[in-house]
Specification:
Strand order of the largest sheet: 3-2-1-4-10-9-5-8-7-6
Strand content: 25-35%
Helix content: 10-25%
Number of strands: 10
């Protein structure tokens, strides 16, 4: 799936890039109507991932809407991407979507920033965790009762809860960001 934030319509493209269709953007991701419409048009439809294309300087509002749909305290959104790919910029858009009105900044050296919005939000940047004086226990405590956005989650392996949303950001040479969102599905419980 490719969603364009430049237009009020959605472009779907199958794996070979041959077929396309346009549908109105849905406020939820992925809605049954969008998945059904894409499947009817012959696009490769999946219910657990979606990719947005955002031109350089383009709005991340539609991406933030998709990431934040249904998030509740205790949920974890992990962000993958190179330095400068736009992870903090996406967190800023999501925080705004979740009602944060204060400036949202990168917690690169602090490792964690907490914000008040419609739900509490914590933004972790674990890139410098190894050389930090902050303990894992302190960072785990930051997660309590908040929606967590975690940059460089591989540095938190072993103590971070499973992610609710995984965002992978890649930037092409022209500056267009491709943001792939996945909502990992949990395996069924053993009876």
């Amino acid at each position: 799936f490719f969603f364009s934030s430049r237009r009020r319509h959605t472009r779907f493209r199958n794996v070979t890039g041959v077929q396309t269709c346009a549908l109105p953007i849905s406020p939820r991701w992925p809605s049954a109507a969008v998945v059904a419409g894409a499947a009817a048009a012959g696009a490769a439809a999946a219910t657990d991932d979606v990719t947005f294309e955002v031109v350089e300087g383009g709005s991340l509002e539609a991406v933030a809407d998709a990431v934040c749909a249904g998030l509740v305290p205790g949920d974890v959104v992990v962000l993958h991407g190179a330095i400068g790919a736009g992870k903090t910029t996406l967190v800023q858009a999501c925080a705004h979507r979740l009602g944060v009105r204060e400036p949202v900044t990168s917690p690169t050296f602090a490792l964690a920033h907490r914000y008040r919005g419609d739900v509490p939000i914590v933004h972790l940047d674990l890139y410098r965790l190894a050389g930090s004086e902050r303990s894992v226990e302190e960072l785990e405590a930051e997660l309590d009762g908040a929606v967590a956005f975690v940059e460089w989650p591989e540095h938190g392996a072993g103590w971070l809860p499973p992610p609710t949303v995984v965002a992978a950001i890649a930037v092409d040479p022209g500056g267009t960001r491709r943001i792939r969102l996945e909502r990992p599905t949990m395996p069924p419980c053993a009876s």
